[in-house]
Structure formats: C-alpha cells, structure tokens
UniProtKB/TrEMBL annotation:
UniProt record, GO biological process: deoxyribonucleotide catabolic process
An MF annotation (GO) of this entry: 5'-nucleotidase activity
Alphabetical keyword list: Hydrolase
The protein, known as: Nucleotidase
Highest taxon, organism lineage: Bacteria
Phylogenetic lineage: Bacteria, Bacillati, Bacillota, Bacilli, Bacillales
InterPro entries: 5'(3')-deoxyribonucleotidase, 5_3-deoxyribonucleotidase-like, HAD-like_sf, HAD_sf, Nucleotidase_putative
Database matches in Pfam families: NT5C
Enzyme active site: D6 (nucleophile), D8 (proton donor)
Signal peptide interval: none
C-alpha cells in the first residue's frame, strides 16, 4: 500500500518545540495548558504578537526549529521503518519552503526515517498538496492541518488526522499516538 505523511506536527512535535523556544528567546513563561487549548496552528498569539509579528518570529527561528533537536513523536520512526520492511511505499509531503527540501530530507534520514528521494515532496501550498496526494493515489494519508484534510475527497483514500487541539472539529479518523495506527489498519482490513 501507499502511505503518505505530512512531517511537521504529524511525525515531529514542531509547534511544541517552537513554543519552548519562543519562551526561551522572549524570556517569558507561558503555561503549557494555553498551548494545548489553541484552536489555530500558529502559536504567536500566546505571546501577544500580531500575525505579522508572529510570521516574523517564526521565520527568525526556522533554522533552529528545523535542524536541531525537534522531538519526533514516540514510535513514528519505528512504525515507518516497519511499514517499509513490510513492502509498503512511504511518501512524505511537507509544505516547508522549497529551499529547505534537501536539508529536511537529510535531517529526516538522520533521524532514521525511511526516505526514498523520489517519494519526498516539499515546498507546496495547501491546494497543491491536495492535488499531489490525489495524484499519487495513496491508500492512507496522515496530516494535522484542517486546510489540507478538509479538501481530500477521493473515495479510496483514507485520511487520518494526527490529533491536535486545532483539528478536533473534524470528524476524520484520528490518532493521538503512533502506536494507535496498527490497530486502526487491522480494523480497516476487517
Ligand atoms: Mg503539519
């Protein structure tokens, strides 16, 4: 089967890592409960920033976010390795800016993710991402972002949400931890 994965906040805990980094850089402590209640992807409102200031802040720490110690969600690497061993095709689709494609791919490989160069897509807008996902004729696709998931309508594709505070209004199947995937796959087989 063909499995497609978003990267940020699906396989790796980027926003929460950024939340910690912002506190460090700004010298401000924000209670984690506020982070876990956010109903939007962006985190800057927790620090009283406007969207413009938030955009600027995000870009100023991007290198650090992408290429240092961002934690991977537990079990994600092992699971994808297992899927690959079982003969499934693993695709990655990330909307990170295109200039980060090669380094992101290298970083993912360094973390142990099974990455085939020809199955790695980077630097697209949400609408284009939807188009690529549909064209690849994936069997499963995993993402956290409502703006992507809401537009995936091909009948034979099973879309699974990585549970996040800002996507709970959607009724798609969801997983909070990667160890929930195998039970979900076997349920779908029966
Ligand atoms: Mg994401």
């Amino acid at each position: 089967m063909k499995f497609g994965f978003d990267i940020d906040d699906t396989l790796i805990n980027l926003r929460e890592y950024a939340f910690g980094l912002y506190q460090e850089k700004l010298g401000r402590k924000v209670d984690a409960s506020h982070f876990h209640e956010l109903d939007r992807v962006e985190i800057h409102t927790l620090f009283g920033m406007t969207d413009e200031e938030g955009h600027h802040m995000w870009n100023s720490v991007l290198e650090e976010l992408y290429y240092t110690e961002c934690p991977i969600y537990p079990g994600a690497v092992e699971l994808l390795q297992k899927l690959e061993r079982q003969g499934h095709e693993i695709y990655y689709l990330t909307a990170r800016p295109g200039k980060h494609a090669e380094r992101t791919k290298t970083w993912m490989k360094q973390q142990g993710f099974p990455v085939a160069d020809s199955r790695f897509y980077c630097g697209m807008k949400d609408a284009e991402k939807v188009h690529i996902i549909e064209k690849l004729e994936l069997d499963y696709y995993f993402d956290d972002k409502p703006a992507v998931v809401e537009h995936l309508t091909r009948g034979s594709l099973t879309v699974v949400m990585k549970d996040q505070s800002y996507n709970r209004h959607l009724a798609h199947p969801r997983i909070a931890h990667w160890d929930e995937l195998e039970p979900l796959l076997s349920k779908n087989r029966n």
